[in-house]
Amino acid sequence: MSHKYYNKIIEWGFLAFLFLYPISINPFFRPTFSLFKLTILRLFTLTFLILWLGKAIVQKKLKITSSPLLPPLFTLLTLTALSTIFSINLPTALLGEYTRFEGFLTQVNYFLIAFLFLNYQLNEKKRITRITFYFLAGATLVSLIAIFEHFFFNPVFFSQIEHLGKEGYLQKISARSIATFGNTVFLGWYLSMAFPFSLATFWNQIILKKHRLIHFFFLFAILTAMIFTYSRGAWVSAFLSTIFLLTILRKEFNKKLFISLIALILLVLLINSLPTHSGYQVTMRLKGLIETERGTSGGNRLIMWKYTLPIIFKYPLLGAGLDTYKLTFPRFKGSPWATSYRSALVDKAHNELLQIGATIGLFGVITFLWVIVLTFIKGLSFLQREKEKSYRFLTAGLLGAVLAYSIDMQFLFSQFAVTPFLWFFIGVVFSIISTKAREKDDIEIDLSKGKVKALYPIIALFLLSMLISLSLWLADVYYQKAQTINFGKQSSKEAIKLMEKATTLNPFESFYWSYLARNYLAIGKSSNNPQLYLYWLQKAEQCYLKSISLNPYKEITYYSASQDFVSAGQQLFRKDLIEKGISYAAKTLEINPYSSDHNAQMGNAYGSLGVLNSQKEMFKKALFYFKKSVQLDPQNADYYNLGWAYEKLGKIKEAIWAYKKAVELRKDKDAQKALKRLMTQIND
């Protein structure tokens, strides 16, 4: 095959990626953080690499665009590799935390996107037109889905309504659009980058007097959908990047653009005034831009940032490892966190620079900033000297998109649905600069005289990587099917078969082993046979131990194991099982002593042991942990169990207070009965 055909295939492959990747999602499973989308990214980048090497084999030379982007890009890749090797947990750093998947395998794809688009030479105006059109067409299609979702329901996930019950229904009538991004803030982030890029392209079309109507429609759809995400960070970043764009292109500003922007604003205001099921209002969201009170999203972020700094100081050189934030944060957070945010399992710093510092280290932060700053320095320098308007507007739009990402990342974190486009924008900026350079200085590696054979093992490695990517995705398909079965309350045996397939295809995901354990226990609990219960409990523990061996820092695994052994000990009247549950609960508290839930579970374990052995000392220990649970999270703690422990120790006055609190906060029926019983005893 001629190298010209390779060029055509690669070019149209790039365009297909820009259009299809934003809308790619598996509509039959939970939309949030779908591994399906990430698999598409991996297959695209690996396919491009194979085609690129195939072209090199045909040409008998490997050609790499020389660019100032290469040194920081290679440095960042090296740092992420070293951080992975020396991470606190290798499987997590390599594959990423489940649902996030921001491990080394994903990070490599980001760098490859930048590298591949860097070598995509924009030496023809047709290529500029194509690359802008296909990106904006994809963004517009996503926007139309988001707009339809705002007024009606999300059409992408309509197939889920039948078997997802209430959860599916809530997604169907989501007040904040998610479209195909699984999360409203990630959709907003993507659209905030698309908006300045779309504005620059539309501006260029006004000057060229071509395709103005279709690009005005693109701009209108993207802006409207971004508003319907009600993502304040996206609004701010889009606004500031637009100001940036208007500033650097101020000499090109004209009357037609001014009229178009007024018309755009009026149309957006009109569609925003139409009736909808959404309870959100733009003014309401804007008022919360500067919220810092504890319990608000702004206040919670401030606390997260505060407790992220000790992680960075602990691992300053290479960080704790990619995507390990969820494993390190519990050991560094302070006790006030438990009273400000219900979830004990925070998995991201909600600030990309802090996230990089905690997971890759300070050198990672410096190198990442090196890439961003260098992009603006080289891009703005290019704008000053370039005369051709098509390249000027394209570069300005790209820089506006990079700025939008850089602003929004102060409140968010890298995510595989959004971050590839940052690296696409950066790669294209440097591609333009190298294409327009007077003296093109490409790096060429001679592949003649048998040297070409050295590429065959590399291509084979890429093909193997594609198979591994498909295997990881297929494993998740089995897991999602198992979830669907459990959600529908069907046979757990069917779910077990699916989960066993999942662990076979991907034995390195600790979450799968934990979920398989819970399915084993579901069979044991429903058996009504003590021997069978013990058999399935043993199989479950083997899975828990496998999960722990893969990720010894994952507190939820110990927590689940503790619950299961305490429950089995209660049902089978086995002291040894409850004691094992206590040992697992102790591990959760060792990892995260500030969790209200974990303290309550330890109290439950000691209380169960006290009931079994009638030991007052056990009730005292149970009371200690129940009180600590209440202190950590007084609005959400289990006051019924606190009252129960007080009652067991004969502290009736305190028990009555705790039961009343349980009724007040939760309308707890058991607490109502206990309260009525105690009040009757007192009156008698």
Question: What can you see in these coordinates?
Answer:
The termini are far apart. Helix 6 packs across helix 9, helix 8 packs antiparallel against helix 18 and helix 22 runs parallel beside helix 24. Helix content is 73%, strand content 1%. With 684 residues, the chain is mainly alpha-helical. The chain is globular and about 90 Å long. The chain has a two-stranded antiparallel sheet.
Instruction: Classify the oligomer.
Output: single chain
User: How many distinct helices?
Assistant: 30
Summarize the biggest pleated sheet: 2 strands, antiparallel
Average pLDDT reading: 86
Radius of gyration: 28 Å
Strand order of the largest sheet: 1-2
Layout: helices, strands, pairs:
Blueprint: H1 3-20, H2 35-59, E1 61-64, H3 70-85, H4 90-95, H5 104-118, H6 125-151, H7 161-172, H8 184-208, H9 212-228, H10 232-248, H11 255-272, H12 282-287, H13 297-314, H14 325-332, H15 336-340, H16 352-359, H17 362-385, H18 389-408, H19 419-436, E2 443-446, H20 455-487, H21 492-505, H22 510-525, H23 530-550, H24 555-572, H25 575-591, H26 596-613, H27 616-632, H28 639-648, H29 652-666, H30 669-683
Antiparallel strand pairs: 1-2
Keywords:
single chain; 684 residues; mainly alpha; 1% strand
Please sum up the structure shown.
By secondary structure, this protein is mostly helical. It has helices at 3-20, 35-59, 70-85, 90-95, 104-118, 125-151, 161-172, 184-208, 212-228, 232-248, 255-272, 282-287, 297-314, 325-332, 336-340, 352-359, 362-385, 389-408, 419-436, 455-487, 492-505, 510-525, 530-550, 555-572, 575-591, 596-613, 616-632, 639-648, 652-666, 669-683, and strands spanning 61-64, 443-446. The protein is built from 30 helices and 2 strands.
